[in-house]
Amino acid sequence: MKRYLVFEDGTYFEGTAFGSDTETIGELVFTTGMSGYQEAITDQSYNGQIINFCAPMIGNYGVAKKFNESKKPTIKGVLAREITDVTGNYQSEMTIDEFLKQENVPGIRRIDTRAITLKIRKAGSLKAAIVDDLDSGLIDQISTWKLDDSQLEKSITPTPAEFAGSGKHVVVLDFGYKESIISELKKRCLKVTIVPGNTSLEKIKNLNPDGILLSNGPGDPTRHTDILPTIVELEKLYPVFGICMGHQLLCLANGAKTFKMKFGHRGFNHPVKDLETGRIYFTSQNHGYAVDAESVEDTDLKVTQVELNDQTVEGVEHTKYDAFSVQFHPDAKPGPHDADFLFNKFWNAINK
């Protein structure tokens, strides 16, 4: 069955339907990852977005629920040049088509993903719709679409969750966390408590943490300005580690500014340079906002890592307190794992 991707500027692409038969509107973004499609689809940082996969084929190794980054995807749709309907992976439980049907996510295959990527790179991230029929009133619907707060709330743990461990206690402030972050903490035998990102300072202190982790999450970090005063106080009391959204919030709390990128960083192959060691490592990234480098200069933060393609800020450290953050995902699943040593750095900070 034919299915269409329609942009807010009126242009459209034609392909073949797969996944659920629902129609949808979202922000269209692209990811350059050659693998990890399941992790991307279930990453809450993609909340409200249609993912255009640059890899020429996805679905090769099927889907297994144990590799999900969250309980339920909140993406709006999937675009792929081609998907596989048969998999040979012994861990596979279903095909990607079956998975998207189960999760009520529509997709389009046999669509020109390269042309779509080039369009986004030129124009920036655009709103688009996945539909089965072209309708004259569709452009107005796309133009007025906005992701509502109730959708964002679905990315966040509504009540605290605990994971036992023999080590120190880490409280994770959740803005849409990935399971791989929790896995890295549990690998180090840390006790973990996950709380909503807007949890009050007093409630966090009552949990008796030894360290604080600010998680990743979707959208504009300035939507979370209510938590900034809490972060300011937390960094005075405990070691703090921020990842992705958590990085942006740590920077905002200390007086820096953020901006919306033209088309963001999404994929598993972004080169980052450590300014202190000179080491370059490949990283997993998924964000549409970044920290303004000039705004960091007037704060108590120092830039520690930059992205080599566009020189955007990829990491900071506080010059007075034991707090640091990175824009990329050191917890990367399925990889790369070049930067997972940062969890050891956090472990060392809370075990001083």
From TrEMBL:
Gene3D superfamilies: 3.40.50.880, Carbamoyl-phosphate synthase small subunit, N-terminal domain
Recorded superkingdom: Bacteria
An annotated Gene Ontology molecular function: glutaminase activity
The Carbamoyl-phosphate synthase small subunit N-terminal domain, residue ranges: 1-131
Keyword vocabulary terms for this entry: Amino-acid biosynthesis, Arginine biosynthesis, ATP-binding, Glutamine amidotransferase, Ligase, Nucleotide-binding, Pyrimidine biosynthesis
One GO term (biological process): L-arginine biosynthetic process
Region CPSase, residue ranges: 1-168
Protein name per its UniProtKB record: Carbamoyl phosphate synthase small chain
Chain's gene name: carA
